[in-house]
Amino acid sequence: MEQPVYHVPALLQETIDGLAIKSAGTYVDTTFGGGGHSRAILDRLGPEGHLLGMDQDIDAFQNRLQDERFTFVHGNFAYLSNFMRYYGVDGVDGILADLGVSFHHFDDVDRGFTFRADAPLDMRMNRSAVFTARELVNSYSEERLADVLYLYGELRQSRRLAAAIVKARPLSTTGDLVNAVRPLLKPAQEKKELSMVFQALRIEVNGELDVLRKLLDQSLQVLNPGGRLAIITYHSLEDRLVKNFMRTGNVEGKQEKDFFGRVATPWRVITGKVVVPSADEIARNPRSRSAKLRVAELIATPTAHSMK
């Protein structure tokens, strides 16, 4: 029986090109997953190079690479700098994060990431975490639940959806959730809006935006001068944080300017225009269609830099 594909990496060639890999460099793939990006990085490293592959989901351990230049790190990238210290890494030449959900998580229906099958309301990326989607939908106040749906799912009728979920309590499975909100959805938009509901809950369960902020901040500590940061995002909330950070050095996008009015930033933006998949890639891998890649290079010292 053919084994299911764990994950197909998006924008693979563009990401590897953006990292400008040095043969003897040290790199960290903070979202190892199926190891697709990591394999491509290793292919470009010489005998003195090294790659650390991080993943908070222990399922990814089965995909670890049998190469003395590779170290698997079981952990959340929110603690990147701590893990680098633990492994004796003084600095790295490149950091990669592919923020998409692996095929594995959608295809393993018991994980509760998809509305296409009835399964426990879970949605944890890290199975050892305590907080689940079931706890979220059954314990949050109606107002707080509406905020999650509006902020992370960008759902205009978030208040009505939250009220329907609260009325349907207790909910135990993805099917319970779908049945609670389905009457409010237009049939032509049902799949899209269910995806938005599930996305919002998943982001909240895993604290995805908070851990992304921590990763971005720590990249300034972990990268060597001239090192590159490559981030692939899949929705506007993530992309906005990354775009702001790479242009201004902070996720809020607050600009500090020098005497001449030029923006002071620790980064040189490599991708002046965001990189998206080609039509051919989307045809081969439809799940890549919302991927966006941004790459920036750390300048030795923060310097004035005009906006791109």
Write the SSE topology.
Layout: H1 12-19, E1 26-29, H2 36-44, E2 50-55, E3 70-74, H3 80-86, E4 92-98, H4 103-107, H5 133-139, H6 142-153, H7 158-167, H8 174-181, H9 190-206, H10 208-222, E5 223-233, H11 236-248, E6 256-257, E7 263-269, H12 279-284, E8 292-305
Parallel strand pairs: 1-2, 1-4, 2-3, 4-5
Antiparallel strand pairs: 5-8, 6-7, 7-8
Helix pairs in contact: 1-2, 6-7, 6-9, 10-11
Key features?
308 residues, DNA polymerase, domain 1, Rossmann fold, alpha/beta
Number of helices: 12
Give the CATH class of the largest domain.
Answer: Alpha Beta
CATH superfamily of the largest domain: Vaccinia Virus protein VP39
Largest sheet: 8 strands, mixed
CATH architecture of the largest domain: 3-Layer(aba) Sandwich
- The Rg value, from CA coordinates, equals 20 Å
Mean pLDDT: 91
From the 3D structure, determine the CATH topology of the largest domain: Rossmann fold
Q: Kindly give the count of domains.
A: 2
The termini sit apart by: 50 Å
Shape call: globular
Spans of 5+ residues with little confidence (pLDDT < 50)?
Answer: 302-308
- Derived from helix and strand composition plus strand pairing, the structural class reads alpha/beta
Please state how the strands of the largest beta sheet are arranged side by side: 3-2-1-4-5-8-7-6
General description of the model:
This protein folds into two domains: 12-103 and 208-305, Vaccinia Virus protein VP39 (Rossmann fold, 3-Layer(aba) Sandwich); 110-206, DNA polymerase, domain 1 (Orthogonal Bundle). Helix content is 38%, strand content 18%. It contains twelve helices and eight strands. Strands 3-2-1-4-5-8-7-6 form an eight-stranded mixed sheet, sandwiched between helices. Strand 1 (26-29), helix 2 and strand 2 (50-55) form a beta-alpha-beta unit. The N and C termini lie far apart (50 Å). Mean pLDDT is 91; it is low at 302-308.
